[in-house]
């Protein structure tokens, strides 16, 4: 495939400018040839001028392209480019002069062709120097530009463009219009030369270098201009290329800007250290404000803090004391001091602050300035570091001079330390947040595990329906319920509640489940079950914890229930035939309260018959004690009346009614701050009995 | 909120409970009872007249001292409980272990 070669502007313009220069040279040589041989060459001056302008343009484009490409923000490099070009052009001019000087009065010295050739070489080199320097100045002027400066520059460029064509109008005579044009251009140049914002950004070393380069530029400009004047007075050159408003104006511009830069740089030298200092402070401040990443440590921040404070206050030594334990202080950073000196200084400061009048604690968190009677260090500055209103340590800066810390230094140093403290605080908070997140995750796992401790399927025969519900106040809770099938006729219901709530309750709950599961296998009576459970739990419950539980053994063949209660909230029993309900309250001590054999005296057993339609509602105290906004408890009465109202519904419906009413009672966003659980059992008409009744 | 008030009548140390005892403040109750016990008091009476509610954590505090009371032969009695709070003690069965009286005079008489 044929592809168009990409046009390389730099190379193209360079080639063009060389060609134009050669053409210019050729035209002039032809003209001289004509004059010498008294022939009318017929080449008008305009052709030379057009070629000259073309030469300017091609050079302009070449250099603007080349400078754009090497767009370094390094000002020194730019100035060096201008200076080197100037030196080169001047050297070439000097060499030419030396060459002619060595020729002396020989015939070759007055050879017009050669003279003209060297004239053109000098012209070309000077023009290159002027145009390239002007474009480099443009970069410097437009550093940190604003709209106004850009406009000024555009005006200047436009004026230069006009000046280029001025030759057609003025025929290169030094008349008033020339001077007028020159004055205008010089004024604009002077205005532009006020834009020297780049100078403060140089370091001292760079400033010295730039002074040298600018000096070179000034000298070369002056020298080249003198050469130009010499040419314009000579009559040998048929068409004067150099008495050009454009070039003269550029001379003025280059010279003025270089001079201004030189002077301003020179006068900036003494203040530049202050500027550098402020710049470092700003950078340090930024480094301090960047928050520390979680995997990094606080030490880096303290390191930056020390560096910044020392450089900001020109301190000769410093150390940092961090409070690690309650009273202990640890020296973590020691700068330009040995341990012995540090201890000596520390002793003196302690003595001074103890004898000082400002004993009140409010002053303790402010920087303190001391005079020391140490042989080497004569002043000290103490900056306390505080995080979250509590002191985490202090930084001590020392200096060899007396009263070495002024107000500005103290100001900047305390700003630094505040910023560092904020960074440290953020770091700590972030770490804490991450830790909390992890705990939350752990609790979620615990929640899942605990959910698995509750049965997902409840054992029951066809002759009763059953459902259960449990909700923990926190992620995990201490409520427990379960069902067991002892044999074909006997089923067990259990509900339990660990005192307290949350994680500790959850652990006891799992112990309770283990104990209940093993005891239930032993085919014990309800009272015996509780006695054994009490003795087992007594060994593993914390001192001030106890468990309440209720157990029901349902014999479906005999339609009989045997029940024991160990301090648990009484169960509601709805009696369908009598259409009334009661809470089954009788003696029964909670598990783990009496941790000896005497417990046997405090547990009872109740046996009663049930019939179809009867309902058992097992609950935990979280429901009874749930409070509304007025501080009233849900209580037993509400449960009782709700069950009586909804007695004909299924256990699931009754349960939902109870839960909904409970939430409605507590209020929209009210939280029930205890675990609560319930189990609802409803006895159905027995299939066998129904058949008997039918026949 | 729980406010505890200690008074002394004859040889009886009376601890009045005002407000609610729950998991967050049961430690206060625990500390006061411990103090009374360590001060060598032989008769500790709890005035529950102003006690509005006691959670299982609060009951746990009383429960945890039962053995100590027995060992050191300390008379520990509760009186003046509201019906609601009294019922909580009854449900848990603590009324079988701690003498609960309706009035202060009864409690004094034992």
UniProtKB/TrEMBL annotation, chain A:
InterPro entries xref list: Bact_Sigma-Reg, GAF-like_dom_sf, PPM-type-like_dom_sf, PPM-type_phosphatase-like_dom
Keyword Transport included in the entry's annotation: no
One annotated GO molecular function: phosphatase activity
Highest taxon in the source lineage: Bacteria
SUPFAM superfamilies, per database record: GAF domain-like, PP2C-like
Pfam family name, one: SpoIIE
Keyword field: Hydrolase, Membrane, Transmembrane, Transmembrane helix
Coiled coil: none
Ranges for domain PPM-type phosphatase: 461-683
Name of the protein described by the UniProt record: Serine phosphatase RsbU (Regulator of sigma subunit)
Automatic annotation (TrEMBL), chain B:
Sequence ranges assigned to domain STAS in this UniProt record: 2-110
Gene3D superfamilies xref list: STAS domain
Domain of life, source organism: Bacteria
GO molecular function, one term: anti-sigma factor antagonist activity
NCBIfam families: ant_ant_sig
Family under the similarity heading: Belongs to the anti-sigma-factor antagonist family.
Protein name: Anti-sigma factor antagonist
Native source organism of the sequence: Algoriphagus boseongensis
């Amino acid at each position: 495939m044929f592809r168009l070669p990409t046009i390389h502007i730099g190379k193209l313009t360079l080639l063009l400018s060389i060609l134009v220069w050669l053409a210019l040279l050729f035209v002039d040589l032809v003209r001289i040839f004509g004059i010498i041989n008294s022939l009318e060459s017929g080449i008008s001056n305009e052709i030379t001028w057009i070629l000259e302008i073309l030469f300017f343009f091609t050079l302009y484009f070449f250099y603007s392209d080349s400078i754009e490409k090497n767009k370094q923000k390094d000002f020194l490099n730019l100035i060096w480019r201008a200076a080197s070009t100037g030196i080169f052009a001047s050297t070439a001019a000097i060499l030419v002069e030396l060459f002619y000087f060595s020729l002396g009065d020989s015939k070759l010295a007055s050879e017009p062709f050669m003279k003209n050739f060297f004239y053109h070489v000098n012209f070309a080199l000077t023009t290159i120097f002027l145009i390239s320097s002007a474009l480099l100045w443009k970069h410097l002027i437009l550093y940190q530009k604003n709209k106004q400066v850009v406009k000024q520059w555009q005006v200047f460029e436009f004026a230069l463009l006009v000046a280029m064509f001025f030759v057609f109008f003025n025929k290169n005579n030094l008349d008033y219009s020339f001077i007028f044009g020159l004055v205008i251009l010089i004024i604009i140049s002077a205005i532009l030369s006020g834009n020297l914002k780049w100078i403060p950004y140089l370091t001292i070393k760079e400033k010295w270098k730039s002074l040298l380069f600018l000096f070179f530029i000034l000298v070369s400009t002056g020298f080249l201009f003198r050469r130009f004047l010499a040419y314009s007075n000579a009559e040998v050159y048929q068409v004067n290329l150099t008495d050009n408003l454009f070039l003269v104006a550029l001379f003025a511009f280059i010279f003025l800007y270089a001079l201004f830069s030189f002077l301003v740089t020179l006068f900036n030298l003494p203040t530049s250290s202050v500027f550098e200092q402020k710049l470092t402070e700003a950078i340090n401040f930024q480094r301090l404000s960047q928050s520390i990443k979680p995997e990094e440590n606080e030490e880096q921040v303290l390191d930056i803090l020390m560096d910044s404070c020392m450089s900001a206050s020109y301190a000769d030594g410093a150390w940092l004391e961090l409070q690690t334990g309650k009273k202990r202080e640890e020296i973590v950073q020691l700068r330009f001091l040995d341990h012995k000196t540090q201890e000596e200084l520390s002793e003196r400061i302690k003595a001074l602050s103890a004898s000082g009048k400002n004993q009140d604690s409010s002053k303790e968190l402010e920087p303190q300035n001391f005079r020391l009677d140490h042989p080497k260090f004569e002043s000290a500055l103490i900056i306390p570091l505080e995080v979250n209103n509590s002191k985490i340590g202090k930084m001590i800066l020392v200096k060899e001079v007396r009263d070495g810390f002024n107000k500005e230094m103290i100001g900047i140093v305390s700003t630094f330390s505040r910023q560092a403290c904020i960074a440290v605080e953020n770091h700590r908070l972030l770490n804490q947040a991450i830790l909390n997140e992890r705990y939350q995750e752990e609790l979620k796992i615990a929640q899942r595990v605990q959910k698995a401790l509750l049965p997902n399927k409840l054992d029951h025969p066809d002759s009763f329906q059953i459902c259960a519900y449990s909700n923990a106040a926190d992620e995990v809770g201490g409520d427990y319920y379960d069902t067991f099938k002892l044999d074909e006729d006997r089923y067990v219901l259990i509900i339990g509640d660990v005192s307290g709530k949350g994680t500790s309750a959850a652990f006891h709950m799992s112990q309770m489940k283990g104990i209940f599961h093993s005891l239930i296998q032993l085919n014990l009576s309800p009272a015996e079950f509780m006695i054994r459970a009490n003795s087992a739990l007594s060994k593993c419950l914390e001192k001030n914890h106890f468990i309440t539980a209720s157990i029901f053994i349902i014999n479906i063949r005999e339609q009989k229930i045997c029940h024991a209660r160990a301090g648990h909230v009484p169960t509601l029993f709805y009696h369908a035939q009598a259409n009334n309900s009661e809470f089954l309250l009788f003696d029964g001590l909670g598990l783990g309260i009496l941790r000896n054999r005497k417990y046997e005296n405090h547990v009872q057993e109740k046996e009663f018959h049930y019939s179809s339609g009867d309902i058992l509602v097992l609950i935990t105290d979280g429901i009874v004690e749930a409070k509304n906004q007025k501080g009233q408890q849900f209580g037993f009465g509400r449960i009782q009346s709700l069950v009586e109202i909804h007695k004909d519904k299924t256990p699931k419906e009754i349960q939902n009614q109870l839960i909904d009413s409970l939430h409605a009672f507590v209020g929209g966003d009210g939280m029930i701050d205890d675990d609560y659980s319930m189990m609802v059992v409803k006895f159905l008409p027995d299939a066998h009995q129904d058949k008997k009744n039918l026949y | 909120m729980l406010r505890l008030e200690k008074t002394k009548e004859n040889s009886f140390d009376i601890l009045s409970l005002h407000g609610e005892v729950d998991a967050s403040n049961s430690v206060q109750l625990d500390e006061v009872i411990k103090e009374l016990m360590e001060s060598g008091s032989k008769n500790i009476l709890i005035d529950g007249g102003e006690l509005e509610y006691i959670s299982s954590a609060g009951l746990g505090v009383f429960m945890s001292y039962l053995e100590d009371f027995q060992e050191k032969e300390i008379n520990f009695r509760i009186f003046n409980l509201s019906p609601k709070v009294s019922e909580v003690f009854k449900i848990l069965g603590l009324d079988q272990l701690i003498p609960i009286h309706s009035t202060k005079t009864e409690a004094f008489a034992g």
